[in-house]
Amino acid sequence: MKLENKVAVVTGASKGIGASIAKHLAAEGAAVVVNYASSKAGADKVVDEITLKGGRAIAVQGDVSKKADIDQLFAETKKAYGKVDILVNNAGVYEFSPLEAINEEHFHKQYNLNVLGLLLTTQEAVKLIGPEGGSIINISSVVSSYTPPGSAVYSGTKAAVDALTKVLSKELGAKKIRVNAINPGMVETEGVHTAGFAEGEFRQQVESQTPLGRIGQPQDIATAAVFLASNDSSWITGETLVVSGGLR
User: Fold this and answer.
1) How many domains does the structure of the chain reveal?
2) What is the CATH number of the domain that holds 115?
3) 113 within domain boundaries
4) Is 186 exposed, middle or buried (0-12, 13-18, 19+ CB in 10 A)?
5) Which pLDDT band, with edges at 50, 70 and 90, does 70 fall under?
6) Helix/strand/coil (H, E, C) string of the chain?
7) Per annotation, catalytic residue among 36, 81, 111, 154
8) Residue 203 phi/psi, 5° resolution?
9) According to the model, what pLDDT value does residue 227 have?
């Protein structure tokens, strides 16, 4: 197993991409902390699926846009497993809005979680990563370069994630901590269905512009995360891996 004896924290892991990443990391031997903000049932389901296959996992509640919740998340991680080897900063929120409708709430809701929360989560994780180093994986988005209309705030947060991935790779390299980002294209998740993007004109437009002709599935992202978490990518840091079927 590629991740045997490793401990992974995956934020926003009760559903969608995060849930798939948690399950794939566990299948490679990692003990996984399944973080969730509100969906306890979803997180418990992920934990059950992992443990039924002989893996190790716990669910820990925490809104990672809040410093106190982040501190509690890593206190619980340390109590359960004593260390962190892998952090997947997956928790995020997206809301599309045209320029004239953008307000302070719309801005801060996304930046507080997608950017500030990611930084503060990484800050705490680093304290539990040992001298042998580790891997931090930021889930960004192809929107940082695709930049669809109405996504000024959301695309801005993901462009920030791309930039801070490179900055932190330079800051943390001396500690043998690698920092990379995965930039997914459109992925069929519960959130995409809830937003009404899973069917209709928007999906058709994305698929028509995607060389491989389909939107992604959560496992398409999860297998890339396993690669970046493992020693297979031991000399890769500061990179943004676009996993989008060719959509740019």
Assistant:
1) 1
2) 3.40.50.720
3) yes
4) buried
5) very high
6) CCCCCCEEEECCCCCHHHHHHHHHHHHCCCEEEEEECCCHHHHHHHHHHHHHCCCCEEEEECCCCCHHHHHHHHHHHHHHHCCCCEEEECCCCCCCCCHHHCCHHHHHHHHHHHHHHHHHHHHHHHHHCCCCCEEEEEECCCHHHHCCCCCHHHHHHHHHHHHHHHHHHHHHHHHCEEEEEEEECCECCHHHHHCCCCCCHHHHHHHHHCCCCCCECHHHHHHHHHHHHCHHHCCCCCCEEEECCCCC
7) 154
8) -60, -45
9) 98
Q: Does the residue 1 lie in any domain? A: no
Told to judge if 154 belongs to the known catalytic residues of this protein, a careful annotator would answer: yes
The answer to whether position 248 is within a domain reads no
Mean pLDDT of 116-123: 98
pLDDT of residue 191: 84
What single-letter amino acid sits at 72? Q
Contact 222, 21 (CB under 8 A): yes
Contact indicator for 148, 94 with CB cutoff of 8 Å: no
Structure tokens at 87: 């952090």
Residue 2 in domain: no
User: What pLDDT, on a 0 to 100 scale, did the predictor assign at position 195?
Assistant: 79
Q: Which domain holds residue 108?
A: 7-243
Which of the four pLDDT bands, split at 50, 70 and 90, describes residue 202?
Answer: confident
What is the chain's mean pLDDT, rounded?
97
> What is the Cα Rg of the chain in Å?
17
